[in-house]
Design goal:
About 55% of the residues lie in helices and about 0% in strands. The chain is built from five helices and no strands. α4 (about 55-65) packs across α5 (about 75-85). The radius of gyration is 24 Å and the shape is elongated. The N and C termini lie far apart (about 60 Å).
């Protein structure tokens, strides 16, 4: 019984995997680097830094971490950044 299952196991065709690889390559070329890229360093701001931070700087920070979609008031952006980047004991 086990031998019959093994003999009927589907084997991927080399041509299919080549087409799949080519398709991925084309998609990657069309869309650049492929999306989110984690910055090298985690932000090292304190709660007080976020509370004094200017709006353009908060926007830039959020954008660098792929969170530039966030819309709201300056206070909402600051609260979002604090909640995202500060550890619970720092809040």
């Amino acid at each position: 019984m086990a031998l019959k299952w093994l003999l009927n196991f589907p084997v991927p065709q080399p041509e299919a995997s080549f087409k799949s690889t080519q398709k991925k390559k084309v998609v990657k070329e069309e869309h650049g680097h492929g999306g989110f890229q984690m910055p090298l360093h985690y932000p090292r701001y304190t709660k007080e830094d976020y509370e004094k931070m200017e709006e353009w700087k908060v926007d830039l920070l959020l954008k660098q971490y792929g969170l530039g979609f966030f819309k709201g008031t300056l206070e909402e952006k600051r609260a979002f950044a604090k909640g995202t980047f500060l550890w619970p004991d720092q809040l």
